[in-house]
């Protein structure tokens, strides 16, 4: 699990490892993160990327997956 | 050519990469740090990227340009880190035989960067700072 931009600042860290039960999804992970890091932004607008690709937040994760929540982007 | 770097960008060098004898039109866009935003005086910007994914997405955008406009010659360079007023944050150079395709394709690249590429900027202004984002709320990227 890696944090960027506002998520990184609010979490106070750029990376965290999490043990999740079999079949857990990015949504489940987000729920856990919110209790571990109560200062994370509460809006649900962030998209999720798994292993560097946009992914379905309801699709089960696998051992070793890298998950990143992508808040609204603002490059350019 | 796709490049994400903390080093200053050189638009001339990047433009040369797409210049070929078959290309009659070369469009180069520069994104430049401006000195004010929503009435606030901006001091500098800080850019951050989820770099492996951002590079992957930029390659994907270049591929889309290839498929849609048959344009082979695209160069995209984005800078990260602290940028002062007037510095160049983004260079997009697109070349094609005719100008219409080059303009359309470069517009497409810019819109895609604004919507799907995981790069973020923070504005540091007089009296505070804020992550920029959500300004194009209606246009969520496709999954």
Map the helices and strands:
The complex is a heterodimer of chains A (76) and B (143).
Chain A (H helix, E strand, L loop, with lengths): L4 H7 L14 H11 L10 E4 L2 E2 L12 E4 L6
Antiparallel strand pairs in A: 1-2, 1-3
Chain B lengths: L1 E4 L5 H6 L8 E8 L3 E2 L2 E10 L1 H19 L3 E7 L1 E4 L3 E9 L2 H18 L2 E7 L2 E4 L12
Parallel strand pairs in B: 1-5
Antiparallel strand pairs in B: 2-7, 3-4, 4-6, 4-8, 5-7, 8-9
Explain this structure:
The complex is a heterodimer of chains A (76) and B (143). Chain A is of the alpha+beta class and 76 residues long. Chain A has 2 helices and 3 strands; from the N terminus they run H-H-E-E-E. In chain A, strand 1 and strand 2 form a beta hairpin. Chain A is globular. With 143 residues, chain B is an alpha+beta fold. In chain B, strand 3 and strand 4 form a beta hairpin.
């Amino acid at each position: 699990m890696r944090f960027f931009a506002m998520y990184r600042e609010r979490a106070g860290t750029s990376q965290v490892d999490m043990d999740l039960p079999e079949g857990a999804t990015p949504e489940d992970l987000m729920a856990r993160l919110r209790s571990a890091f109560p200062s994370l932004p509460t809006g649900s607008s962030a998209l999720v990327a798994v292993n560097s690709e946009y992914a379905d937040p309801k699709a089960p994760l696998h051992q070793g997956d890298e998950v990143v929540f992508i808040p609204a982007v603002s490059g350019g | 050519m796709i490049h994400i770097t903390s080093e200053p960008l050189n638009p001339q060098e990047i433009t040369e990469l797409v210049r070929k004898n078959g290309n009659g039109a070369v469009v180069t866009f520069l994104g430049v740090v401006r000195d004010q935003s929503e009435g606030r005086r901006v001091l500098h910007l800080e850019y951050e990227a989820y770099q492996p994914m951002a590079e992957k997405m930029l390659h994907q955008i270049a591929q889309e340009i290839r498929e849609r406009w048959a344009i082979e010659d695209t160069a995209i360079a984005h800078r990260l880190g602290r940028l002062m007023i007037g510095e160049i944050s983004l260079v997009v150079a697109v070349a094609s035989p005719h100008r219409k395709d080059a303009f359309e394709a470069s517009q497409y690249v810019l819109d895609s960067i604004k919507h799907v590429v995981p790069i973020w900027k923070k504005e540091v202004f007089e009296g505070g700072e804020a992550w920029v984002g959500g300004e194009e709320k209606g246009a969520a990227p496709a999954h």
